[in-house]
């Protein structure tokens, strides 16, 4: 395959010869080279967008070990992979009825997917593209699987289902257990803290749950704002829990004993995703401002940068050193925030 430089753009045709469990080769035509990073203004970071195949409907992202980015293509039932250097993509079919929501990279280096359409946890081998499915028990249909995280032991994968469940999968034995969540429907984002605790957010339940691993129960932790709509959670290096409050347009923090909340700037903030980077800086996606928000816990100040494209609708964030990645579900693009300069 040959790439020919055309000014500041790269046009590429990518023929992916990977064979998934359920289908033949996937052909992808890459769009023009990703837009150049937006110039810095008064924010300490810049955004860069990467177009993917139209109609895929990207939902969640996870940085891959090879330098690429995995993303769930919810509308096309695929797991996608982006090469940020050239803007090239490939896609792997996940199976009949697939509608993948979340993706993370496990300790084994493989992407693990919560697939609501197949009601299963799906593992994709990054080398062979082999698709392996771990279906939920028959008595747990339509769990509306959302997100997953690995426990500190490296083998237990915890996951949420918005229909009102959370569960765990022993990735070595394949044993799975599913539990009823307090207050019914709502479990959404989930995170594992350095101290070993696992927390999830319940959007409909308006609480954060701390999972009791020994019993499969959950302790309900309620933020101060009534009806706040806790949507996503993440932990910092001190095992403090950060929460995006969708209904309230706020960022919240739970330190193990008490809560604190901060309203995002703007007239109608809508906090969707939250992620804490390796410097303990907190990142939030704000649908109301159509932008990325960076929160400094030391100064308790926000810096917000709007997306170059309208209706970005970034639903989730994950990062690696120097990069915070998200999927623009409203634009069929991936986006990354990097330090200015």
Q: How is the topology of this model organized?
A:
Elements: E1 4-6, E2 9-11, E3 13-16, E4 26-29, E5 45-51, E6 58-63, E7 69-73, E8 78-83, E9 88-93, E10 100-105, E11 111-115, E12 120-124, E13 131-135, E14 145-150, E15 156-161, E16 165-170, E17 176-180, E18 187-192, E19 198-202, E20 207-212, E21 217-221, E22 230-235, E23 241-245, E24 250-254, E25 259-263, E26 271-276, E27 282-286, E28 291-296, E29 301-306, E30 314-320, E31 323-328, E32 333-339
Antiparallel strand pairs: 1-2, 3-4, 5-32, 6-7, 7-8, 8-9, 10-11, 11-12, 12-13, 14-15, 15-16, 16-17, 18-19, 19-20, 20-21, 22-23, 23-24, 24-25, 26-27, 27-28, 28-29, 30-31, 31-32
Identify the CATH homologous superfamily. YVTN repeat-like/Quinoprotein amine dehydrogenase
Main sheet? 4 strands, antiparallel
The number of strands is: 32
CATH architecture: 7 Propeller
Which strand order does the major sheet show? 5-32-31-30
Which residues form runs of ≥5 with pLDDT under 50? 1-34, 36-41
Number of H- or I-type helical stretches: 0
Radius of gyration: 19 Å
């Amino acid at each position: 395959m040959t790439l020919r430089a055309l000014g500041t753009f790269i046009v590429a045709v990518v023929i992916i010869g990977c064979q998934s469990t359920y289908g033949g080769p996937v052909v992808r035509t890459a769009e023009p080279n990703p837009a150049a990073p937006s110039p810095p203004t008064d924010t300490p970071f810049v955004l860069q967008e990467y177009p993917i195949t139209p109609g895929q409907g990207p939902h969640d992202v996870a940085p891959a070990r090879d330098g690429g980015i995995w993303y769930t293509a919810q509308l096309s039932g695929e797991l996608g992979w982006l090469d940020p250097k050239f803007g090239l993509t490939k896609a792997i079919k996940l199976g009949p009825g697939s509608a993948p929501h979340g993706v993370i990279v496990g300790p084994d280096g493989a992407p693990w997917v919560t697939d609501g359409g197949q009601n299963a946890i799906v593992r994709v081998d990054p080398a062979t593209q082999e698709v392996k499915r771990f279906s939920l028990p028959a008595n747990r249909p339509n769990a509306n699987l959302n997100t997953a995280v690995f426990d500190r032991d490296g083998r237990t994968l915890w996951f949420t289902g918005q229909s009102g469940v959370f569960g765990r999968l022993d990735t070595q034995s394949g044993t799975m257990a599913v539990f009823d969540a307090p207050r019914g429907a709502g479990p959404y984002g989930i995170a594992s803290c350095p101290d070993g605790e696992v927390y999830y957010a319940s959007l409909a339940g308006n609480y954060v749950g701390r999972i009791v691993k020994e019993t499969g129960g959950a302790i309900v932790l309620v933020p101060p704002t009534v009806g706040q709509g806790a949507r996503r959670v993440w932990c910092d290096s001190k095992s403090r829990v950060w929460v995006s409050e969708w209904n309230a347009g706020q960022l919240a923090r739970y330190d193990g004993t008490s809560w604190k909340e901060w309203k995002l700037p703007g007239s109608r903030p809508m906090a969707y995703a939250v992620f804490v980077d390796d410097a303990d800086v907190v990142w939030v996606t704000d649908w109301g401002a159509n932008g990325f928000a960076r929160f400094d816990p030391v100064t308790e100040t926000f810096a917000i940068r709007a997306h170059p494209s309208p209706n970005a609708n970034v639903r989730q964030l994950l990062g690696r050193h120097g990069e915070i990645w998200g999927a623009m579900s409203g634009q069929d693009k991936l986006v990354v925030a990097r330090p200015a300069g």
